[in-house]
Amino acid sequence: MIMYLLYAVPGLLLGLYAQAKVKSAFNKYSKVRTRRGLTGAQAARAILDANGLYDVAVERVKGFLSDHYDPRSRVLRLSPGVYDNPSIASVGVAAHESGHALQHAKGYWPLQLRTTIVPTVQVGSWLGPIIFIIGLIINWISLAEVGLIFFGLTVVFAIVTLPVEIDASRRAKAVLVSQGIVSPEERKGVNAVLDAAALTYVAAAIQAIMIFLYYASLLSRRN
After folding, report:
1. What pLDDT sits at residue 221?
2. Tens digits of per-residue pLDDT, 161-202?
3. Three-class DSSP labels, 84-119
């Protein structure tokens, strides 16, 4: 148990810090209206249309910061707090998700890779640890190794996600200013929100890597 905590706690603490930072930045800048006054939905539509992505729909979805771009259905979904709000935080999040649509349109390969492995990762993230533990319990090392490989896919996914999210934020920051959706002075708020969000993905990658290393250490000792 102590060994597990040594591996898990650093990533967990960083994740909690990142989540708190995101909520703080979003709450702060969701109260600051942009000078132009576009809502998140309007900003997303403007960015998409300016890049010829007229066929990408922008929809409202339930939840808090549940915003995402679905490359399979080519739909950009924004939470109510982003969709309807003409704030710096809202247009920043909307532009970030629009950045994923731009990545998709331009064939950005890390996004393509992430999209391809999503189904496998969804299974491996919960099935991998189960197979691994069963393998250790019954002392079937080969089965435990299979479980470790399955869980390893979540590590690959977390690592691949980093450049995808960072690049989407980079695109968002540039396009917001170039299209006049936010002023150069308002970019500070956009940076605060998107940089805090990026930290959550760093934390997720660290958590996945550390848990993988913990499982690998158990397997190594058993061997």
Report:
1. 81
2. 999 999 999 999 999 999 999 999 999 999 999 999 999 999
3. CCCEHHHHHHHHHHHHHHHHHHCCCHHHHHHHHHHH
DSSP code, position 69: E
Question: What is d(CA 192, CA 201) in angstroms, rounded to the nearest whole number?
Answer: 15
Is the distance from CB of 208 to CB of 150 less than 8 angstroms?
no
E-strand spans in the chain? 57-60, 68-70, 75-78
What does the pLDDT average to over 66-86? 95
| Residue length of the chain | 223
Tell which residue, 52, 23, 37, 43, has the closest CA to residue 196.
Answer: 23
Q: What are phi and psi of 68, to 5 degrees?
A: -165, 160
Question: How many other CB atoms sit within 10 Å of the CB of residue 222?
Answer: 11
pTM reported for the whole predicted model: 0.90
Place of tokens 């890390």: 110
Q: Residue 8, exposed/middle/buried by CB under 10 A (0-12, 13-18, 19+)? A: middle
Look up residue 118 and give its two tokens. Answer: 């999503």
Residues carrying an active site annotation: 97
